[in-house]
Q: What sequence folds into this?
């Protein structure tokens, strides 16, 4: 058996629960065969034979999960930020995604995406590709080699989009999807397929019904978009007059939690009925604050979801969001929650930095199992962050340094190395 058992020494911080950080200064974090054995101030006798990597004054944090990101959109991030969702899709997104028909282009673009994701704070990601099976496989090959743990979806869309990106029929879309499942399911160590109807406006009822059948047949998880933008929600009402809410349009076809592990991005404008369906079915919400701002979608009531015990994680939603930084994503989640409290609803308290940290680690990580914490029994995903470049005349506590890092990582913070399930994927070995 491959031995990935070792100890990291440094300033260790993780979420004890939603509201509290566990901080151990100059502590030992023990990994045995890819699993955390916990954090210790004094190293227990039984671990004394393991190699110790001393990271000095650096911060040791859990890996982050990006619960919603579009790999093909990495090429135009930061561009075309002047439109709302539906126009943005037509104008910028669909033309770009059609380019992944060409494997040479996909090779180049997915190479850059994977490289940058590998260097980011993300250890796990739930990823949209495009409708193209071969390019999606190529992305999966690259992500597999990166050592990051990912779910990747070949997108389905058979209506309401330009010919160049529309799968010709529900049957053709389902056939291509089943072929892609056969080629990828169980084929990788780090990467696996996730069913990915883009969203209700681009998926006919027949396609959604067929995807529900594939889901049952293969037991795959599901990802999609839900109640993101008002114009989109109005359109779904017209397209599915039979549905009681947008979420119901997925649920009717077995694509909304329950047996199907499901993550829905956004849920900005979910009705009370939809929120109850999300909760009852155990559907994950991927909160994407930067994207919801850039595409003028709104601010999701994350406090309400947390109070109801709904599973929530954070997503960058590149290219709705402009960058892959989960630290930026956390800071944005806190910031927009404050605007929501101030401008829309003072019943819902703003999120705290501790809560955002929890969402980025344990919240999203739980989609992958026991991930996002250093408690004993969790898969060992860890980041070593050097904040010595973020200068300050004061002496700071480790907790202050972690909270500051959330806001200042992009200033002079530096990720020194990264571990996924006990394997080092980045930094000096
Ligand atoms: N809804 C359907 N497709 C997309 C997409 O690519 N990005 C976002 N943010 N929302 C969508
Ligand atoms: Fe998205």
A:
């Amino acid at each position: 058996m491959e031995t990935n058992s070792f100890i990291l020494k440094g300033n260790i911080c993780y979420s004890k629960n939603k509201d509290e950080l566990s901080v151990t200064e100059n502590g030992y974090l023990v990994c045995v065969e890819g699993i955390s054995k916990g954090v210790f101030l004094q190293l227990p006798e039984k671990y004394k034979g393991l190699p110790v990597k001393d990271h000095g004054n650096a911060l040791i944090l859990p890996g982050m999960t990006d619960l919603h990101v579009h790999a093909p959109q990495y090429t135009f991030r930061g561009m075309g930020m002047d439109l709302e969702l539906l126009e943005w899709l037509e104008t910028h997104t669909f033309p770009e995604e059609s380019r992944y028909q060409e494997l040479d282009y996909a090779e180049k673009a997915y190479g850059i995406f994977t490289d940058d994701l590998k260097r980011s704070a993300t250890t796990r990601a739930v990823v949209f590709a495009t409708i193209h099976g071969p390019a999606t496989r190529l992305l999966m090959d690259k992500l597999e080699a990166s050592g990051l743990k990912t779910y990747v979806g070949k997108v389905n869309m058979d209506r309401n989009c330009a010919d160049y990106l529309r799968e010709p029929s529900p049957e053709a879309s389902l056939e291509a999807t089943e072929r892609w499942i056969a080629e990828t399911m169980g084929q990788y160590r780090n990467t696996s397929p996730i069913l990915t109807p883009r969203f209700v406006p681009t998926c006919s009822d027949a396609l959604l019904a067929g995807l529900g059948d594939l889901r049952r047949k293969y037991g795959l998880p599901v990802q999609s978009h839900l109640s993101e933008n008002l114009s989109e929600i109005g359109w779904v009402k017209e397209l599915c007059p039979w549905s009681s809410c947008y979420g119901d349009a997925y649920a009717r076809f077995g694509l909304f939690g329950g047996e199907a592990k499901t993550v829905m991005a956004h849920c900005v404008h979910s009705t009370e009925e939809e929120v109850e369906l999300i909760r009852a079915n155990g559907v994950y919400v991927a909160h994407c604050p930067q994207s919801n701002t850039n595409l003028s979608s709104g601010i999701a009531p994350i406090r309400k979801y947390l109070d109801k015990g709904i599973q929530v994680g954070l997503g960058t939603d590149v290219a709705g969001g402009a960058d892959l930084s989960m630290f930026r994503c956390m800071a944005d989640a806190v910031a927009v929650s404050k605007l929501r409290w101030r401008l829309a609803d003072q019943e819902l308290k703003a999120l705290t930095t501790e809560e955002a940290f929890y969402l980025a680690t344990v919240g999203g990580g739980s989609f992958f199992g026991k991930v996002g914490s250093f408690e004993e029994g969790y898969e060992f995903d860890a980041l070593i962050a050097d904040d010595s470049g973020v200068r300050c005349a004061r002496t700071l506590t480790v907790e202050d340094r972690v909270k500051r890092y959330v806001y200042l990582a992009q200033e002079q913070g530096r990720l020194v190395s990264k571990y996924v399930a006990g394997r080092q994927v980045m930094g000096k070995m």
Q: What stands out?
A: The radius of gyration is 21 Å.
